[in-house]
Amino acid sequence: MRADSTTTFRSLYPPIEPYISERIPVSGGHEVHVEQSGNPHGIPVLFVHGGPGGGTSPIQRRFFNPSKYRIILFDQRGCGRSRPHASLENNTTQDLIEDMEAIREYLRIKSWVLFGGSWGSTLSLLYGQAHPDRVRSIILRGIFLSRREELDWFYKEGTRSLFPEAWARFSGKIPEAEHDDLIKAYYRRLTEPEFERERLTYAKEWSLWEGSTVTLVPDEEQRTHSVDPVFALAFARIEAHYFLHQCFLECDDQILRDASRLKDVPITIVQGRYDAICPPKSAWDLAQAMPWASLKIVPVAGHSAFEPGIQHELICATDAI
Question: Taking the domains of the chain in order of start, what are their residue ranges?
Fold first, then answer.
């Protein structure tokens, strides 16, 4: 049932601990952190986190019925508990897709459910298009298709109109002469040796901009987490690296172009109506390219997976599989 004024929103499942947590060596000198919780014999589900560079957290286990699911969380290259921390070397979208396959093979899983939001929706779709026979279902939230119009929305002419005070702070750290490309300007300061002493300062500002826009109602806890030094350094460096290279896609509309590769995979799309980071147009465009998918636009919600209405729809979707 859809959540409305007469419906009680679903709450997260109770906290659980992993029954195994390990780092798996992958290509290019990286090790990715992988944890498993829930039922070892249950339906395998892979939580694909956002960012790029966001990492995972214990609360993300709680979208899934632990008696039904074998819950797998992994930190993508360079972030969370994966190593080397904040590394951009050998860190591309194709590398991440190969890492997901390496995890699946290592865990001896034939096929699994993918659960991804924001950048996690991008990566889930790209992995599914590369390996459709390995995916039994996909649940997506806050759609990001890695198109130029989406990057321009968040780093040029869109979100700034809704959060002018946060934008003033974010853009104000960069000389006005470089305001035509803030992604490039921040990338320089997050990677080049001449800015090494100020790197963490710029990382915090990059992260705070996103942390200030992620929820419909201001969330001070989210803002505080966004400027944690360990989190911010990986998040900012990796995200700027990916966005500067338009997430290493072959072309601007690659995901929509290859939509038919997932025609046999059930797909649920959950989208906040007032998502200021990934506006609903992208979810709509994806649903038009995938008419077999179910699109649920949550009327009172922003970008976060923990908006009450979005959380409700996501848990309903995992329960329905």
Answer: 20-147+249-320, 149-247
CA–CA separation, 197 and 41 (whole Å): 49
Positions in the chain short of pLDDT 50: 1-5
Residue 49 bears catalytic tag: no
Q: How far apart are CA 32 and CA 19, in angstroms?
A: 17
Please tell me which residue in 30, 49, 241, 303 is annotated as part of the active site. Answer: 303
Distance CA 254, CA 266 (A): 20
In the three-class reduction of DSSP (H, G, I as helix; E, B as strand; rest coil), residue 214 is classed as coil
**Does the global pTM surpass 0.85?**
yes
Say whether 179 is catalytic.
no
Classified as helix, coil or strand, 210 is helix
| Distance of alpha carbon 210 from alpha carbon 270, whole angstroms | 20
The one catalytic residue in 275, 282, 285, 304 is 275
Contact 138, 124 (CB under 8 A): yes
- Let me know: does 303 contact 272? Beta carbons within 8 Å: yes
**Residue type at 45?**
V
CATH 3.40.50.720 fits 20-147+249-320, yes or no: no
Q: How far apart are CA 59 and CA 14, in angstroms?
A: 9
Output the pLDDT for position 199: 98
H or E stretch including 115? strand 112-118
Burial of residue 192 (CB within 10 Å: 0-12, 13-18, 19+) is exposed
Rounded CA gap, 223 and 71, in Å? 27
Q: Is 11 a catalytic residue?
A: no
